[in-house]
Amino acid sequence: MDFTHLHVHSPFSFLDGASSIESLVESAANLGMSALAITDHDNMSAAVKFRDAATKSGLKPIQGVEVTLKADTTGLSPHLTLLAENPTGYKNLCAALTRARLDNPRQSPALDIELMRGSTQGVIALSGCRRGEIPSRILERDYAGALEVARKYRDIFGPQNLYLELSETLLPGSMILNERLAEIADRLGLGVAATANVHYSEKQCFPVHDLLTCVRTLTNLDDVHPERKLNAENYLLSSAEMKARFSKYPAALRGAGEIAERCEVALQCKGKCHPSFPVPDGTPAREMLRDLVREGARHRYGKITARIRDRLEHELDIISRLGYDDYFLVVWDIVRFARQKGIRFAGRGSAADSAVAYCLGITEVDSIARGLLFERFMSLERAQKPDIDVDFDARYRDDVADYAYQKYGAGNVASVCTYNTYQARSALRDFGKAFGFPDEEIDRLAKRMPHLHADDVKAAVQRLPELKDLKLDPIKYECLLDACEKVAGFPRFLGTHLGGIVISERPLTELTPLQMAAKGVIVTQFDKDDVESLGLIKLDLLSLRMLSAVEDTMSSINGPGAGRKGHLDYDSIPTDDRSSYQMLRAGQTIGVFQLESPAQRALQSRLGANRFEDLVASVALIRPGPILGNMVEPYIARRQGSESIKYIDPRLKPILEKTYGVVLFQEQVIQIATAIAGFSPGESDHLRKVMSHHRSTREMAEIGKMFVAKAVQNGTSEKIAEEVFSYIVGYAGYGFCEAHAAAFATTAAKTAYLARHYPAEFFAGILTNQPMGYYPPETICVEARRRGVKVLGPCVNRSGKGFTVEISGGARAIRVSLGCVR
């Protein structure tokens, strides 16, 4: 095989890689290379994205990592480059990285190389860059020490799996360093391999890498720091350039090619990785799921009609054919645990499109009654993994997660990571400091910048008057904006997903390295999209303080000494209570879930909300997308009857009638594409995804042509087809998932009922679970008083841990918690 770059850093080296994975892959492909490795610092977070990009470009992806080793006797923490030769090697790298992360302080990963003895099968080691233990000893003129370390590495990895890494980046000492490395290799019978220690795809990317280094080292461009590279030679050199640089060491060029030839595609995802549910008595998971759904349907519906039976059979068939019977049982078991423990929860998201989820008690949205599409959640064509989100009482969410850890094993469960990526404001702040802008100038610029992607900063400056008159140094300012655009989407650091966990059938370290996050939880090194590509399924176990407030409210209403007749069942609270809607129309929504913001308060009075569907629409309307897309005013005008509703095709009426002709929900996009263009459910959902994620104009144009062509075949005129497509394009990018809106609206309606009929208990619950919601405690107290509820000061004899309700002057009053006493 021709020369292959085996030591390459992507942006997932976190502030030490200045070219995107796509750019590195594209450059390698354009240079005629047939393979490429990614070796980021102490992580393999780029592995899935790199595999997909390389495969798409026809390159063989070689997975690797540059690890930091435990400090030696001199205090040096050396580097070592490790490559996965095959899937076994990939697993061993995952295990090694996990040890390096979990056995050391969170931000100081260090691999004890001795622990790799006996677990190096499928791993090829390169001696590393200048910070490698062998090269650094040579540069310190400790030739005997370098030879001793090389022997140790040879014993650990085996002579056939250890190569001494020759790198030429035109730095002082390179000539003698490579000579000594070659001598040691010859003396110990080891191979040599040429690398370029790549940190960016092209030379012109060097300034961005230099800025990232300044950010990483908390310095600016006027400072001297040993981490800053001395030249722009760490780029992806062509084979010809590498041949010229290593003319004295042709064996090193051959060695790099030989290693690439040996390496297989190490990251392979075969079949599902989610666990098999431990079904009692050996009953097939498919049968147990059907039995539970039938039982749940009888509880939910009483009489099982043909319509209900057909819908459930349709969903169960798709679930079974896609192989997710076990997964639904896992989720059912987790919410069953919560229910048994009295932990309040509420399913939401696209899972509420599923009647099976409703019958299993995972969600409270009747998708059959609402006419929701299961295909928005799952379909055979797309064969996508189910994404189920469940909110839990925030105080006990970790108890639910602990149940999953105990049941499936700590080594098989972990939280999902997220990548905090560069956006406009964060890029301006980081790079502004690196350029040496005064703090006040950076702050003024960042605060005036809207929340945008980093590659939109130039357009924003040209468009927005408040940014045009900043009067900053024009040269530095232009360079700053250029740099911000070039790091758009680069990962800044790794964080923890709000509630996502993965449960695996086998040890997670066979699939992903694990590490400790800032919140003290163990996380995967892959985000939600990547874990799904690995065959894992993310389950969102989310914390919601409103559910904590609801639980406290219900305990106060029904608890001992409540002084009320009868018992209030939260699940039986009506969503059509007339007095609750009177309260909403008056704009008295403070404390009400999802409806308390100033925009929502204004909407309720303008909308004249008087039914549950108005709440569903409200949840979807007051979002940045619908507001920017000018959907709110047409909806209100049509709801009030001041604007006529017209349907350019009669087939649109049954789809859009409940939203007054406005394409408000993503499910409606799917229905329109099916009715007008004859799209299959999978094609329709692809259209929905393209629009809702604002994909490229080229992709939009392609699917638009497909829509028109299929609509014409389906009996629609070309003119009408084009008009319908433009019609849904105008709104669909801002559409909301109706199932999710209905789930939130259910909680909104019930909390409105509590606020209307039990204000003392409800506001006491809200105050106990601060911080939450839109308003500070002072505002909640003002609202409680406005409702005729006294707020009594703290009392040593009467106050409790939380805010409590007591009788004062014959009326219910809120007693302030002792915890509020400062």
Distance separating the two termini: 72 Å
Q: How much of the sequence is in beta strands? A: 5-15%
Low-confidence segments, given as residue ranges, are: none
> Helix share of residues?
40-55%
Quaternary structure annotation: single chain
Q: With helices defined by DSSP (H or I, 4 residues minimum), what is the helix count?
A: 35
Structural class based on helices, strands and sheet pairing: alpha/beta
Q: Radius of gyration over alpha carbons?
A: 30 Å
Q: Strand arrangement, largest sheet?
A: 1-2-3-4-5-6
Outline, from the CA principal axes? Answer: globular
Overall pLDDT metric: 91
Task: Characterise this structure.
The protein has about 800 residues and is α/β, with parallel strands linked by helices. Helix content is about 45%, strand content about 10%. A six-stranded mixed sheet has the order 1-2-3-4-5-6. Helix 31 (about 695-715) crosses helix 32 (about 720-730). The chain is globular, with a radius of gyration of 30 Å. The model has no long low-confidence stretch (mean pLDDT about 90).
